[in-house]
């Protein structure tokens, strides 16, 4: 497939959805030149949303992280996280009780925002009927903030005791922590627990359509946008491109992250996930 | 869980989504009394949509089938099929070329409606470069209309030759054909092909959110409905209830189809899929 | 990995296990020069066994096929098929009743040899309690000899009616039928049925250890051979090499079949299945 | 299925294979009366082997544990652990280099016995080419002896750097730690790592045939036993009974562990794994 220029391509669309990791930033920080790209999109009056499978931080905290990395001018409504879908689920489906979770205090912000009480699994007494009774949902939020051995096992035993809605707020298997290394994400941990307790949890985040639908609905509160008006930009075939394609958006694969120039053809062929366009990055 | 009356429950909602098989009809035909239930909903001015994982017939043909079974007054816009999502995908993502498919001529109606040419896999010459080049998408539509041995194998070899979008228009594994017997659905056949060619296809239909989203969007063209205003009614935990829950709807499991009174508790416990309400049927 | 010469390597072993398809023959027939290789092994007094995931023909019929292809001098005891493991299972575990099957009359030879009666699923009357009661095991034997639509569905409904041992006599997903084309094998079909009825069947054939154990035991009836004395030769990483490695044999991957010279390194790296040696073929 | 008496049944066999947990012991310790059962088998001159999916302790240490629980007279050769299969693999396939592992120092005994050097993953420097080069196999041994977060992630990154044989010495998902609670076993942890690095590891332990074959071969060093001479006794359908059936042994399911009297029929029906006999326990 011939490579295109992001700057030329984007002008044909009325809005853009952009993946965060591998497009805007990488393990070293902000990708050089990304501020220019964002400024360019704004100058063309093309609204955008950053779609990220991240439930470890609230929208506000995400903005702060981008600011610290050097990206200026992002607004809260321009960030869509998979944690927001988990929050919406709680708001719509859980009317009372507490929500137990695996994650940091920071990530529990999404529970707080839903108006429900949150309790880390570490604070639940599995031998107290009252403690068990009080909890009405369980949330996988972040891979940090708990002792893996102690509290993953405790989660397993909690879920063996009580049948309740279990939500995974980030479906990613792992995330990069350096040029060569990764860390298992809460989505990966939740797969282990699913396998042990033999149940299927509710997962939010790309490639699931609900993430795109949420961003689409949010965008349409600010104007009128059809699916064909929107370009989805991402670096990962199995999340950004698969999800974008299925939702009916035109998709652009960039080679500044997970997918490398020398193996892109092989990966497209073996996966059967085909982007509409390919570009080196969003930098030109 | 205590059982509720559908008639009492539905009055608390502004709209209803209803599964077809196991709620409105079963292997013997229309469930006795369903006409009264539909009339009751209408008398309460509660709009409804029938959501069915069926791509073997168009909306219009579905209406005709219900009419033949004895259910009167259904309107075309009240039927949402997973085939319509496949059609939408073709409209949004496939701009040229032909669409090859497994299914009946009837089911190919969805391709026709998208404005694209359709060709059954039986008519494709795998040794003709032109034939292969001309095809820009593949669609699994129905389990009938082809020779399983000959044309499932031909599909495998076609997909080994060409990398293109593959869409499954009905994700069900099987469907009932009598009190005790089932038949493998096109969703099941597509799993076999996925397994053989080692790729992931794009699947439409419950429990996937996109089906609910489509019905939700269609409904909102006729008024203003929030997710909390809608009740999803179905007989199957893994499709109707799981999908309804995830989308954020209140869910009612009825025991007139796949899920039986004597095993419902066991099934809920072992699956972890919990409906908000349970009723014997929609008949009272 | 450096390539070795099969002729030089084999001299270091007291016995050889050889895969059939991709090593001795391919879609065009016998691989040119294979007669010399077999003669060479014999001249070195190295006994061998041909291990094949094939339950469509008995040992005797397999010999005949090789003879027809032009390979002379193979003896019955030199052929080990996965069908023989199915036969052994029947002999050891099924003491009475009939065995129903999917496959050709030819493949049913394995049931006949076990001393049990065989009945094709096409001849079973699902509405006859007697017919159902009479059957004490079900066997997946061959992808031919039945109507896929009719009899795969009939198998599903039979297995929904009766809980009994189900055996898959060939675990391969597919087999090559020409340079570019494959056909779904009975192992693939059995996966579809497993998926529909949600059970795990008993599977025989490489890479499962039991196939290697059977060949090992047969070989040791003719002398004394330790695992370290035996070289396993095959063209497929996921069956021949994985199974040979796990059983504790030294393994030689040949590039005359499924695995090609230009992608062998990639395949080894992505699968994590590592042969001890690599050679172009067994021809030199 | 009618229940039988173990004492009456066992007299029809020349040897017995016995699962450990759920048959001989449970979370409270030795099951009351088991000493009598063992004494009874011995008095009938029926040799037995205890088959356990446990790689956390050597044969010798296992004997000591049974002694501490109060079971007297077990001999080292009467214990077969899945760790012994991992050791055999190392002996046959790994000729040089060190073996890295996840587990306790105790469990590494199996590596020591193979004559190879062992190194816990915690001591490997991922940035040292020499460290990486020195390691020729990786072993999952025990769920204890390491920091889950730190060292499971380190294992993932090690396996991303180096392609080498990976062995799981205990394929169990979890093990009971009290009447109601379980702990994730190293077999479960290895599944998480497999899922993250997208490779298939080599797994030892029931239900895999190789475990039964090993016990069978060991037994046959002391006499002549055919498969039909041996009874497999276990409390778990998916390991003891499935594995015993497939290997061709007669199988006895006991209800003193994982499988309970009130759900045994349901479990047999839904799994399709059918024991030849059922008994309450081995106590009478």
TrEMBL record, chains A, B, C, D:
Record key words, sorted: Hydrolase
Gene3D superfamilies tied to this protein: HAD superfamily/HAD-like
Source organism superkingdom: Bacteria
Pfam families (alphabetical): Hydrolase_6, Hydrolase_like
GO molecular function, one term: hydrolase activity
The protein's name in its UniProt record: HAD-IIA family hydrolase
